[in-house]
Specification:
Layout: H1 8-25, H2 39-42, E1 50-51, H3 52-68, H4 82-85, E2 92-93, H5 95-115
Antiparallel strand pairs: 1-2
C-alpha cells in the first residue's frame, strides 16, 4: 500500500483555496453553527494580509451578524486571538499562517469529536 505524504503548508493552502470557492458559492443557512471565517472575510482591504485592526473589525461584524440571527456566543471567549494566529509575530497574518491555523483548528475539532 502506497502512502502519500503531504506537507502542512500544502494542506493549508488547499483549505484556503477551498475556502475561497465555498465562500463565493455556498451560503450559510440560518440556524447553523457559525463556520470558521475565510481569509477573505478577515482581509477587509484585500491586500493579502490581515492586520490586528482588520481582525478585530471582522470578528465584531461576524459576532453581530450571528447575534442578529439568534446565534449563541457560548465559545466566544475561547476564540483564537490575533497573536495566536500570527505565529511569526510580525503583526500580520499571512495566507500561510491562516491556513496552518485552520488545519490545526480542524484537527482539534476532529479530536474532540472522537472523544465525545
Amino acid at each position: 500500500m502506497k502512502r502519500i505524504i503531504i506537507s502542512l503548508p500544502i494542506v493549508a493552502m488547499l483549505f484556503v483555496g477551498a475556502d475561497a470557492w465555498s465562500s463565493k458559492n455556498v451560503k450559510q443557512s440560518t440556524g447553523q453553527a457559525p463556520t470558521m471565517p475565510m481569509f477573505s472575510d478577515l482581509d477587509l482591504n484585500g491586500d493579502g494580509v490581515i492586520v490586528a485592526e482588520e481582525f478585530a473589525e471582522a470578528r465584531s461584524k461576524r459576532m453581530a451578524e450571528q447575534a442578529a440571527k439568534g446565534g449563541k456566543m457560548k465559545n466566544a471567549a475561547n476564540a483564537p486571538t490575533f497573536e495566536s494566529i500570527d505565529t511569526n509575530g510580525d503583526g500580520e497574518i499571512s495566507v500561510e499562517e491562516f491556513g496552518t491555523h485552520k488545519v490545526e483548528m480542524m484537527k482539534n475539532r476532529q479530536q474532540r469529536t472522537k472523544i465525545n
